[in-house]
Amino acid sequence: MSNNEISFFIPLKKVPTTTHQMKRVAIQKGKPVFYEDEKLKSVRSLFVGHLAKYAPKEKLKGAIQLHVMWLFKETKKNKSGDFKITKPDTDNLNKLLKDCMTTCKFWNDDAQVAVEHIEKRYNDIPGILITINQLGGNDDPNQA
Questions:
Q1: Deepest of 29, 49, 70, 76, by most Cβ within 10 A of its Cβ?
Q2: Phi and psi torsions of 129, nearest 5°
Q3: Closest CA to 79 of 129, 122, 126
Q4: Which domains does the chain have, with CATH numbers?
Q5: Rounded-to-integer distance, Cα 48 and Cα 30, Å
Q6: Core vs surface per residue 38-53: b (16+ CB within 10 A) or e
Q7: Range with top average pLDDT, 45-49, 88-92, 135-139
Q8: Residue pair 112/62 in contact by the 8 Å Cβ criterion
Q9: CA 27 to CA 72: how far, in whole Å?
Q10: In sequence order, what are the beta bridge partners of 10?
Q11: How far is residue 2 from each of residues 7, 65, 91, 134, measured CA to CA in Å?
């Protein structure tokens, strides 16, 4: 692991399949109002609780490479190492995770993630394996 790399594993009894796209909408005074239901709030709280332990002392600057491996509990049909090709979609899973990483101050904005690699696999121990590399290249004057 280099100085510009953060790598950690979050073991989970069951990988949450609730995604950021599960926000709800209500109409108040004739206008749509978006909100998070209790299930989404619970998953957000779970992620933030785990991620906060691994947050860097200072926010990462410049371009970032993010590798996330979502590891779902293996089944009789799907053994450890097999790819998971059913829902939820990888981009939907990662959206909530990256929002939580922003909340935990891994970076200033998840738009800094310039390179992203996402996998869904089965594993004997379910969880999320995350590797972050700071690539450099700061073209945002707000991050100087």
A1: 70
A2: -100, 120
A3: 122
A4: 5-143 (3.30.1330.70)
A5: 33
A6: eebeebbeebeebbee
A7: 45-49
A8: yes
A9: 36
A10: 128
A11: 10, 13, 27, 10
Query: Is the backbone of residue 119 left (phi > 0), alpha (psi -120 to 50) or beta?
Result: beta
User: Is 130 a residue whose pLDDT tops 80?
Assistant: yes
The answer to whether residues 7 and 132 touch, using CB atoms and an 8 Å cutoff, is: yes
pTM of the model: 0.84
What's the sign of the alpha-carbon dihedral 94, 96, 97, 100?
positive
Q: Is residue 64 within 8 Å of residue 140, measured between CB atoms?
A: no
Spatial separation of the C-alpha atoms in residues 95 and 116, rounded to whole Å: 12
The number of beta carbons lying within 10 Å of the beta carbon of residue 122 is: 18
